[in-house]
């Protein structure tokens, strides 16, 4: 049932404040300001590497997780798309754990990667949305996303719930490894507790995002740029746009612009820049200047401070609430989903059932 929404995808985008809240409450104790003890078959302090493997959008959630685990828990993360991982015969040390991220819990390549790690004898955790899935059954610990059934083929609420689980696990890992103080743990938990409220605020930008999408629908190619955790988000934005609107899109690390994609920039190639005002905001501003100097049209997704300090002409600036850096990837996921959604609606495509795609890819 779509309720009063035109598509399941729209409904699922709007469910995010609620399902993120449910998911976080499963992992975090908001009154104590701590991560809840999980039934993990290992202690994060006893491992020196984490292998993460997944496909598509779930892979991009894992990639954000890598930035988080490495930054806050000082835990090195190897992340691969599962179709590569399963065949690349990676040596896995005994002091590793392996996490698999999947909405369906049935994706063939991810499951094969899980079985590879099982043979290697490392503890296995599955971050899945379907509790009774094959991956859930075959793992040592199930870390559920509580997104509820996701019907739209393009993943939206499952993605932000995967991010929520990975963020909570990062706090757990950092706490067990002693890389954050109790005060810092409280601050991270507090910032996560605010995500549902910020997400609800972002949903109210739908009129502006719909207007930009009308414009976007007239182009053949779109480039997405971001740095740090916004780099995986740039790839997620491009993935979402191409799969439902069929417009060619690519996501790049903003610093890679000069190493190739800048050759594509002209007035026919809009560039979507995902850049909250953070430690490296100035670097992204210079990338935008490079784009503007070549006639590229910029759609900037940022916050108040970023909008004030971006000394560059944009086609449109979408201003999100100022949010703590830790939770920015969860909040910034929403406008890129909304952009893809409205653009697809303007293109007249089958938003919930895009051509050639299946919700669950159970064959290789
Ligand atoms: C993109 C999308 C796909 C899936 C991928 C993995 O919107 O939905 O890229 O993320 O097929 O599926 P799961 O998460 O079920 O393993």
UniProtKB/TrEMBL annotation:
GO cellular component, one term: cytosol
Subcellular location per the Swiss-Prot or TrEMBL entry: Cytoplasm
Active-site residues per Swiss-Prot or TrEMBL entry: 359 (for fru-6p isomerization activity)
Domain called SIS: residue spans: 40-179, 212-354
Main location: cytoplasm
EC number: 2.6.1.16
Record keywords: Aminotransferase, Cytoplasm, Glutamine amidotransferase, Repeat, Transferase
GO molecular function terms listed in the Swiss-Prot or TrEMBL record: carbohydrate derivative binding; glutamine-fructose-6-phosphate transaminase (isomerizing) activity
Function of the molecule: Catalyzes the first step in hexosamine metabolism, converting fructose-6P into glucosamine-6P using glutamine as a nitrogen source.
Identification of the protein by name: Glutamine--fructose-6-phosphate aminotransferase [isomerizing]
Parent-record interval covered: 244 to 607 of 607
